[in-house]
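Researcher: I'd like a candidate sequence for this fold, 106 residues long. If you have to choose between options at a position, lean toward the conservative one.
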């Protein structure tokens, strides 16, 4: 997932209920699918952030020495400014990029 190209809104917005439920015909099913996708996105973002921050990790036992790394701060600020995982999931849902299946209907 390329987070730099994300088109999801950063602020909270109101969506049309009919548009959200249209692919499944059931609003609760649509919300459940989006929630599961949001959890997947959150896991991906967290994993990517941890990998990037580990590059800056220094392992020393002294609590007195705290180093301020500007690159680390920039990485953290970038991830703070990203849209939230649920906003990304809703945008993917509306764009038709989320695939789903119901094992009970097959």
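Model: Candidate sequence:
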């Amino acid at each position: 997932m390329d987070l730099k190209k994300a088109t999801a809104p950063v602020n909270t917005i109101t969506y049309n209920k009919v548009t959200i439920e249209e692919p499944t015909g059931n609003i609760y099913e649509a919300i459940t699918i989006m929630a599961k996708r949001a959890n997947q996105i959150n896991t991906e973002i967290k994993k990517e952030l941890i990998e990037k921050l580990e590059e800056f990790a220094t392992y020393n036992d002294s609590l007195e020495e705290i180093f301020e790394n500007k690159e680390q701060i920039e990485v953290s600020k970038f991830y703070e400014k990203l849209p939230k995982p649920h906003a990304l999931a809703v945008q993917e849902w509306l764009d038709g990029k989320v695939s789903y299946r119901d094992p009970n209907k097959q």
